[in-house]
Amino acid sequence: MTQNAEHILDHSELFRGDEYQQMLAKKKALFENPHDPADVDRIKEWSKTSEYREKNFAREALTVNPAKACQPLGAVFAALGFERTLPFVHGSQGCVAYYRSHLSRHFKEPTSCVSSSMTEDAAVFGGLNNLTDGLANSYNMYKPKMIAVATTCMAEVIGDDLNAFIKTSKEKGSVPADYDVPFAHTPAFVGSHVTGYDNTLKGILEHFWDGKAGTAPKLERKANNTINFIGGFDGYTVGNVREIKRIFDLMGIGYTILADNSDVFDTPTDGEFRMYDGGTTLKDAANAVHAKATISMQQYCTEKTLSFIKGHDQEVVAFNHPLGVSATDDFLMTLSRVTNKAIPDALEQERGRLVDAMADSSAHVHGKKFAIYGDPDLCYGLAAFLLELGAEPIHVLSTNASKAWELKMQALFASSPFGQNCRAFPGKDLWHMRSLLFTEPVDFLIGNTYGKYLERDTGTPLIRIGFPIFDRHHHHRYPVWGYQGSMNVLVKILDKIFDEIDRKTSSVGKTDYSFDIIR
Amino acid sequence: MSRADNQGVAEIKARNKQLIDEVLKVYPEKTAKRRAKHLSVHEAGKSDCGVKSNIKSIPGVMTIRGCAYAGSKGVVWGPIKDMIHISHGPVGCGQYSWGSRRNYYVGTTGIDTFVTLQFTSDFQEKDIVFGGDKKVTKLIDELQELFPLNRGITIQSECPIGLIGDDIEAVSREKSKEYGGKTIVPVRCEGFRGVSQSLGHHIANDAVRDWIFDKSAPDTSSKFESSPYDVAIIGDYNIGGDAWSSRILLEEMGLRVIAQWSGDGSLAELEATPKAKLNILHCYRSMNYISRHMEEKFGIPWCEYNFFGPSKIAESLRKIASFFDDKIKQGAERVIAKYQPLVDAVTAKYRPRLEGKTVMLFVGGLRPRHVIGAYEDLGMDVVGTGYEFGHNDDYQRTAQHYVKDGTLIYDDVTGYEFERFVEKIRPDLVGSGIKEKYVFQKMGVPFRQMHSWDYSGPYHGYDGFAIFARDMDMAINSPIWGKTTAPWKDAPQPSLMAAE
């Protein structure tokens, strides 16, 4: 018998026992109608070839293992960044169960969000009643200060008009007439989660700045000296936003974080469940119109939002998930220019420490080949940092990136001697990446949890940076922006490099002459 | 608040009724009226739990339910390992259900098995406008080229497919013919259908009937010689290896498991199932439909079983054996006896740490009732339970075989209700899903995910019971729960004392 009360075996060990192994072998031989192992091997080897790669890249209809999610996920993420705001997704309810699970699995935190639970009858007659009843119920039950509505693909296909529906719902008394219900149309068949973030943030700002859907006068801009900061869809939002606040405070800048969800995704365990915590206040969201400028850390997450803000006479600046020395320099110098505040010594010292760390360690990264995938901005930031370390980001792939992103990436590669053999792949998925890793191998892969399948198949060690990270804990608590965040990223990369050296040299009496304790 | 504390059942009932009244107060009148039907206190001797079920969730509440797509792709079809399951529609549904249910399987992933891959038609605006049939037709050609060892394909419809009127049945027929009778199954599991994932299970069962059974005559499909002891495991999704720690017991008692539905299952096993002498059904909710169909059409009897905890396992082994001859009956006794030392050791170790602890459950499928026996084997007391998507027959089974007088029952509980109930009752453990986990842990209440076994498992069978017992102990008796309040909170603050 395999199991033992004194030493209980988990699934990872239990099924390796003889009894189970024999049982599974018998199941396969007798009942599964398995393929000839020679055929399995043949196809497996073929799937690693250039011939397979060519067919794989020729596909037009099939997507396998995409590195993107759908719009409403980004909508929920953005809405949770406002004070006592309940995200409300208009459409079928299963979607919301998925968004809540997905975000909770990454952050290990509760994710509050409701749906209008549309079913067949709503598909035929439209979802107005669901929205009206739903707003009334959430308003009474969860006492939010604001309900931010977004749509699913279902509501979009049947053509539900949120502006009209919310108006009608208010007329029917579901929520008070002056209650804040900003909205955004976020069809899942357009863009990805970053588009949903963009649409929702724009929707919320539009609500406050442009007269609350015709129910209030438009705000008149009275320029002040504060700046707005937008993080974008970011799996590191907890660590990153706090790091950015620290930097702003060091510089003495007055700021508003737009969609600050750093607290709601990091509430304490102290006996109380906080459904709402922190967040940009509604007053600050409205007053953000008066800011001098808006800075976005992720261009491709905020295209529509920035264009909207620019239309309100603010300067807008977009970065691409800045990482490393030069990108952080740019970020700080831009802050300094826009706010007329000097960059303090403390930050200059942090810069020096990052440079120090890179000088100490770059020998281990220099010349190494990397593959990267993820959201377009993250890919850009990571690639730029690798080039700075003398590494080569050979394949950079982003399922939700555009042709314009590709050009920008290629320009980045062209700017560095280490970028000469590097290529950007917009619109491709992780099955494409698999072919790339087999036919043009690299030393390391950087990406989210799903990359572990690629690591297993191709043997390329995975450095987990991105969203979602389900199978490692608490990475989101550590920033990846700024000099200190870059240090965290550097350490992640180095840890994997050293682990690999140890793994490859640990064989006793064979390779362990290089099993060093000093590096 | 345990019943072991001598609290009378009458008192518990009164408290629970008051709790229900309290949570209903927060809703608008119409909603309160509707929700009232789903909340109850169990009265012993009643034929069901006194709640309405399988009714639409109320808009704007935090329901824990999913959708028909989740029921079909996520539960029934997704674990069939040698077929490719296309999430047909926009990217999200496939992405969120990718690898999240831990349906363990053995195979060469991406070559002859495909469970942990995400195949999607990734609908774009033009597909909504012009329809997706052409895209999925082409997609099937691409699958055939890139994944030539797939044994079959299913098309799992997401919301837009039904709304724009795509004809995935025609596509399936046409492509099946083109590929020499290949099994291609269209499944109309659009997320807006029905009130929860439950309808997705039913639709998926019907698709097996129409597109697998009706295509292949039962006597031609399987290559093996039948034996008098052939059974099929129905409704076990092999989460953390559950079906394996179940299968081993059945084989040890002398039965032959010719198919697993659907965890670690294969198309060949689906096709061979009509040759079974008995279908044994674990998750009644998700697969009773196809079991009833096989009974009607092929004359195969089915029986339910419960492999959580030694009491129910022994009871179930004997029940299954009762369909067979003495050889199997003796086999069942032999298996029960063989594992008794393990049961004794596990109980001796964990029962003293868990005796009298109270549990509140809220899960899907069979678990709101089936796991109660396992808790009782450890001396624990389930004081509240409810189903995400149960039907009346689930509540009947619960009332007649599982819950005690006075148990709080909540169907399709809303986040608000569940939080209030737990806050007031303060059970020693809550068992529910990922969406609930962190809410209750923040409140300082120990928690186990009872959908996915919190990344542990298996929990089925005797081997699984050992893990179950260990996990409950580790959750409840973790030292961390003694630290949720800062020590200075217990003592009066100096400033407050001064103020007094």
From TrEMBL, chain A:
A GO term from the CC aspect: molybdenum-iron nitrogenase complex
Transmembrane segments: none
Catalytic activity: N2 + 8 reduced [2Fe-2S]-[ferredoxin] + 16 ATP + 16 H2O = H2 + 8 oxidized [2Fe-2S]-[ferredoxin] + 2 NH4(+) + 16 ADP + 16 phosphate + 6 H(+)
Cofactor remark from the record: Binds 1 [8Fe-7S] cluster per heterodimer.
A UniProt-annotated Pfam family: DUF3364
Domain Nitrogenase molybdenum-iron protein beta chain N-terminal: 1-56
Keywords per UniProt: ATP-binding, Iron, Iron-sulfur, Metal-binding, Nitrogen fixation, Nucleotide-binding, Oxidoreductase
Cofactor(s) it depends on: [8Fe-7S] cluster
Coiled-coil regions listed: none
EC class of the enzyme, as a word: oxidoreductase
Enzyme Commission no: 1.18.6.1
GO molecular function, one term: ATP binding
Keyword Repressor: no
InterPro entries recorded: ChlB/BchB/BchZ, Nase/OxRdtase_comp1, Nase_comp1_CS, Nase_Mo-Fe_CF_bsu, Nase_Mo-Fe_CF_bsu_N
Residue ranges of every copy of the Nitrogenase/oxidoreductase component domain listed in the record: 70-495
Family as reported in the entry's similarity comment: Belongs to the NifD/NifK/NifE/NifN family.
Chain's role: This molybdenum-iron protein is part of the nitrogenase complex that catalyzes the key enzymatic reactions in nitrogen fixation.
Assembly mode: Tetramer of two alpha and two beta chains. Forms complex with the iron protein (nitrogenase component 2).
PANTHER family: LIGHT-INDEPENDENT PROTOCHLOROPHYLLIDE REDUCTASE SUBUNIT B
Record-given protein name: Nitrogenase molybdenum-iron protein beta chain
Organism: Bradyrhizobium sp. LLZ17
Source lineage: Bacteria, Pseudomonadati, Pseudomonadota, Alphaproteobacteria, Hyphomicrobiales
UniProtKB/TrEMBL annotation, chain B:
UniProt-listed InterPro entries: Nase/OxRdtase_comp1, Nase_comp1_asu, Nase_comp1_CS, Nase_Mo-Fe_asu
Molecular function via GO: ATP binding; iron-sulfur cluster binding; metal ion binding; nitrogenase activity
Pfam families, A to Z: Oxidored_nitro (PF00148)
Domain Nitrogenase/oxidoreductase component: 67-476
Known role: This molybdenum-iron protein is part of the nitrogenase complex that catalyzes the key enzymatic reactions in nitrogen fixation.
Listed SUPFAM superfamilies: Helical backbone' metal receptor
Oxidoreductase listed as a keyword: yes
Family of the protein in this entry: Belongs to the NifD/NifK/NifE/NifN family.
CC annotations in GO: molybdenum-iron nitrogenase complex
Subunit (UniProt): Tetramer of two alpha and two beta chains. Forms complex with the iron protein (nitrogenase component 2).
Origin: domain of life: Bacteria
Record keywords, A-Z: ATP-binding, Iron, Iron-sulfur, Metal-binding, Molybdenum, Nitrogen fixation, Nucleotide-binding, Oxidoreductase
Enzyme Commission (EC) number: 1.18.6.1
Cofactors, names only: [8Fe-7S] cluster; [7Fe-Mo-9S-C-homocitryl] cluster
Protein name: Nitrogenase protein alpha chain
Record NCBIfam families: N2-ase-Ialpha, nifD
Catalytic activities: N2 + 8 reduced [2Fe-2S]-[ferredoxin] + 16 ATP + 16 H2O = H2 + 8 oxidized [2Fe-2S]-[ferredoxin] + 2 NH4(+) + 16 ADP + 16 phosphate + 6 H(+)
